[in-house]
Automatic annotation (TrEMBL):
Residues annotated as domain ABC transporter: 55-291
Native source species: Flavobacterium ginsengisoli
Designated name of the protein: ABC transporter transmembrane domain-containing protein
Signal peptide limits: none
Protein origin, superkingdom: Bacteria
Record's subcellular location: Cell membrane
Length: 297
């Protein structure tokens, strides 16, 4: 399968992402079978150590292989320059998560191009491509193992000091240090139960260790308590520093300072601009979403 050649960290992340994507472990293998054969095709680019992090979608159209009759994305165009924060908002089912799956190349697009640093992602070695990306999913699933192992998935060669630094930067150190067994504490089914916010901070520490150029953040839909929310948000700010971030946003409050907001509606980008620009669009979707969210909170 596609996953055999990937690094340990890569597998863990992909697995977590797939689990998230399908919502049930039993379906993991089904999804693996859906991964198109061509994805294993020989890369045309020689090994790339470090990707800079420019991303562009050019006229991207996509249908899931299992539902070819439905076009999930239509003529999607956007660019994210190195270091920018690009937020994607839109109603449920609009295709936001699909954009992140395509960037990670879980599927190949139907037409158009996805470029990373100006090169087609299909020409990269998958390990090189995914080795330069991290995803912090909505619902982080940790592996049965210790907290240390879960953080070190991001970089199996990390030193003790690097692990501690990453945990501190991710606002995870204090709660980990509060457990009797600290970094050796077992998590997962047979270990301690961590809150959603704590699991996210472990995933952030893992991503910090991996040090990717491109970051995909899938914001949690279920609200965390406000203290945890603040700690996660702070940690994410640190993580986004100096990387290209694609943020799938469910709450508009966290993306006000994004460099660009894309409003996706039924597989198409219907509005694009900064918060200020979009808020001024008469009858705009963003403006309406924004009025709704802020009047409710
Ligand atoms: P949400 O905000 O609810 O997470 P979204 O904007 O992220 O939604 P996607 O998850 O990208 O939307 O889904 C876009 C469309 O693609 C939906 O119609 C969905 O049913 C369909 N879809 C998603 N995953 C698959 C899949 N693996 N196979 C077939 N169709 C899928």
């Amino acid at each position: 399968t596609t996953f055999i050649g990937a690094s340990f960290g890569g597998i863990a992340e992909m697995y977590a992402q797939i689990q998230k994507a399908v919502g049930a472990t039993e379906r993991v293998f089904e999804l693996l079978e859906e991964t198109p054969e061509e994805i294993n095709a020989k890369p045309r680019l020689s090994a790339v150590e470090k990707i800079k992090g420019n991303v562009s979608f050019n006229n991207v159209a996509f249908s899931y292989p299992s539902r070819k009759e439905v076009q999930v994305l239509k003529d999607v165009n956007f660019t994210a320059e190195f270091g920018q924060k690009i937020a994607i908002v839109g109603p449920s089912g609009a295709g936001k998560s699909t954009i992140s799956s395509l960037l990670l190349r879980f599927y190949d697009i139907t037409s158009g191009q996805i470029l990373v640093d100006g090169k087609n992602i299909q020409d990269y070695d998958l390990e090189d491509l995914r080795g330069n990306m991290s995803i912090v999913p909505q619902d982080v699933i940790l592996f049965g193992g210790t907290i240390r192992e879960n953080i070190a998935y991001g970089n199996p060669n990390a030193t003790e000091e690097e692990i501690i630094t990453a945990a501190k930067q991710a606002n995870a150190y204090n709660f980990v240090d509060g457990f009797p067994e600290k970094f050796e504490t077992l998590v997962g089914e047979r270990g301690v139960k961590l809150s959603g916010g704590q699991r996210q901070r472990i995933a952030i520490a893992r991503a910090l260790l991996k040090n990717p150029s491109i970051l995909i953040l899938d914001e949690a839909t279920s609200s965390l308590d406000s203290e945890s929310e603040k700690l996660v948000q702070e940690a994410l700010e640190v993580l986004m520093e100096g990387r290209t971030s694609i943020i799938i946003a469910h709450r508009l409050s966290t993306i006000r300072n994004a460099d660009k907001i894309l409003v996706l509606d039924n597989g198409k980008i219907s509005e694009e601009g900064t918060h200020q620009e979009l808020i001024n669009l008469e009858n705009g979707i963003y403006k309406n979403l924004s009025n709704l969210q802020f009047s409710n909170s």
